[in-house]
Amino acid sequence: MLKIEHLTKRYGAKTAVSDLSLHIRPGEIYGFIGHNGAGKTTTLKSCCGILAFEEGEITIGGVSIRQDPIACKKMMAYIPDNPDLYAFLSGVKYLNFVADMYGVGKAEREERIARYADMLELTEDLAQPVSAYSHGMKQKLAVISALIHEPKLIIMDEPFVGLDPKATHTLKGLMRDICDRGGAIFFSTHVLEVAEKLCDRVAIIRQGKLVANGTMEEVSGDASLEEVFLELEGDNA
Amino acid sequence: MLKTLVAVRFRALISGLFKSRRQSKKLGAGKKILIGLLGVYVVAVYAALFGMMFYGLYDPFSAVGMMPLYFAVMAFMALVLGFAGSVFATQSQLYDANDNELLLSMPIRPWMILLSRMIVLYLTNLLFTALVMIPAGVVSWIHQAPTAGSLAAFVLGMLMLPLGSLTLSCIFGWLFAWIGSHMRNRSIVSLVVSVGFFGLYFYFISRSSELPQMIVQNTDKVAGFIRTAGWRAWQLGQGIAGSAGTFGLFALSVLAPFALAMAVLSRSFIGIATRNKGGVKIKYRRREMRVMSQKRALLAKELRHFGASAAWMLNGGLGLLFMLVGPIMVLSNADFIQTILNAFPEASQYVMLLLALFECLTMTMCTISAGSVSVEGRSIWLMQAMPLDAKDVLLSKALLQLVVTLPFLAVATALTWIAAPAGPLMYVVSLVLPLSFAVMTSLLGAALNVRFPRLDWTSEAVAVKQGMSILAAMGANMALLATPVVLWAVWLNKWISPEIMSLVVTALYAGISALLCRYFGRGGARRLAAL
To answer: Which residues in chain B have their CB less than 8 angstroms from residue A92's CB?
Structure first.
């Protein structure tokens, strides 16, 4: 579904991501782990077509993000780490706008907004302006907007930050459900316990370079993911 | 602690002026000097304006021994200017500052946070007060050297008067914030109040040359008005003119309410700073959803954003209000215009063209699209992550300005046709010339803003008021309007009639618009993706 091949992204003289290759298959929840400033957000934004990159190739469903970004963006959704949404719109108007952008039909959008807003307990607040939302409510709205066009790939940057325990549980269930239906999820997290329990595969990045990747067994074996992560950090320090 | 808090406030103000774009890159020395010179120019213009006004007042007032009224008029104007100049700043810095909660979480006493903001607001107010009082004082001192007591009263009065206008600003700022938190369309309230203030400001500027005469001719009425509506100004005027007792009353009338306001605000600051800013709670009811095409949805989103931002409407669209002024003035002075036309019959064919050019002139100040990329701020990622053609995004921003402009243009054109009938070709010119100019300026604003965006703002007003794209758009619009007019007036009029020249210019504007559309699909799209 998502293929990253030899990705290199530089900011001036600084190399943020260096020769990174990953393959996220349909049905997989793929965790992306690394310390602050390791290059996770840069990689995720490059996959979404938000950041241009110098070397390598990223394809979504076999389509190059560089060659046909619009076709790629139609297949996926992105949830950033800090959901800065349109504060001047109400929640429901924001969702309707996103549905218009992805060309979702009237009946489908109405049904999906109702379903996901009920699941994430946001229905009561949908008429409120986004400016009045808490961080967690914005995160829930971003999640609903990402699901509105039923994307094949969802890219999430720290999706659980700000969510209450119930919403976190619901989101985990939604993620598994999407992948069970053939979708793929690529997300970054600092919560290693979540990654350990939720992900089918993980990748660990350090200073822009991939230091480990594979299934949970391949990466951590009998040890915990936390132990492996700290060990890799120590080795490379 | 207080020093640090005040320094932080000033640093924020200065960085807003001297930093550009999201990289927080500092401006070069040349640009800093340019901004400094612009500041000096603005201060000099205001000082000259008030200086001339008080120069006109001094002799008549002095001749009839009404110097207390002279100083009272000065103090009243300073009070009003200080209030008008600081009421919105008070609202945003005191009640709506986005770092209130951060500072309250630190081990800082609330009254100290409040005082640090008050000091900055006081200094802003003092600047406005000084702009009026110093020219008035200098005019009186040129005529007659002041006594030590009068000079002391003047200086102390100038330092104390801002506390009066600041107290008023605190009350009104609180009122606006309260209304805002209890209304759905708070931007409309802000817009109406702001337009009211601007109306008063432009009325004052347009009548500034007649004001001294009006005041001199109606001294009794002015004295009565200031004594009742601006009694503090009246007391200060008496005080500077030599009445120590009245000056004491003035000091008391300024300091006591300010101290009371500070005491009330310190007690309620936590409540004010942490109040719910979401406005009235709206209950959600499921309704049928409206489906739109991408392009229509983008335009609808731009219109909603524009309608929700009083600062954007006011700063970007104020010029449009003036568009109606030209034809209305011609209509309301029909007799006067007819007298001129009778004397110069050949001029009649130009009145409609002049009104059309006036419409274009007002559009040079319309900078709605020149701030439309900047207002995206931190939510710019949405436009980049969605499956959108960047050209459509930029076109929707240009279209926003055009859609807002067209109703004003239609009314102004209709009024022009009624006010100044002309030949058939001139009717066409008066329609197509402003229309092509409106299209071109709308596109140009968006093109300049994607080239010079300002996405790192903390207040939306910064995005639509400051920044290179706003200045560049106004300058380019003016140049594109003035250049053909000047060329025709000094050179081309020997060969080309005004109608043909206007049609040629219309074609030129259409050509530039086509090039700008092409830019949106190429360089503009790349710029938008790279933001």
So the answer is: 284
